[in-house]
Specification:
With 348 residues, the protein is of the alpha/beta class. The chain contains twelve helices and 13 strands.
Length: 348
Amino acid sequence: MSAPLLEVRGLTKRYAPRRGLFGSAVGVVPAVQEVDLQIAPGETLGLVGESGCGKTTVGRSLVRLVEPSAGTILYRAPRAQLVEPALLACASAEGDQALLDVRALGGRALRALRRHLQIVFQDPYASLNPRLTVGQALEEPLAVHGLARGAEARARVATLLERVGLLPEHAARFPHEFSGGQRQRIVIARALALEPRFVVLDEAVSLLDVSVQAQILNLLLDLQRDAGLAYLFIAHDLAVVRSMAQRVAVMYLGRIVEEGPTEAVLGGAYHPYTQALIASAPRLGAEAALPRAVLAGEPPSLLAGPSGCAFHPRCPLAEARCRVERPSLRSIDAARRVACHLVASGVD
């Protein structure tokens, strides 16, 4: 893999829930724990796992909508493309690349970074201001970053709308006048307005009908091909992840438990949790009648997580070692990593 566009080391996010509005903290919730990721230019990394495992927290941390508690987030860009003085002042040289420590940025530098790192949220209606027309919503980031105003901004908005399969006259309408699929196209257009290099797609199609999902997914693939975008694709639907992502990372209770090429992981998972996740996916035809592995119990509380491997209370293969020693995420070949004692000892 080429030098990563985004490199994440030891990303951790802890929350301290409180009793009542002004009450004392009741403990620490480690929502994300020591996550390491790399995303190459033009690549899509799928991030999958059960609800509450920390996927959205990872995505929002990468674009600084959530402040990480620990870890490093590095962003690389060709120096020729890094035109913002505030970013150039914070960048270190790495050949012809500029290297930015995302967590260290603030003020003007952080605002300038928003041009490069964008996010598309799960609910398009909730992420659009109902009092702004579509044109106003798309012109706003252009004005904030000093890219265009007036007639020039309106012309760019018309181009953006056409690029995502809408009409220029849609700029005069409000969000409630559109269908769910159209609103998601508008949100994607807003994310693309600043010409970013990396976009977090947080369950970007999960609320849409299947036929509309296909349209949005094809749109995202076309935009990636034309603009060289890199995606972090957060999703529950493994079939969608298979169609979108070159690599996939599987999360359980805030940690990455398996990572590798999508076809290799989904076609031959090593970790028992990944195997159960794949087995739980809906099946059609004769496969629907085949027996499948069903996980027992529920994910444990993050306030009082289990010792050793976090998955051992639900794992059908757990051994004594799993209950006391947490497995590290180890490379098992050039492309795959797994956090499981059984895999490390040669047991599939």
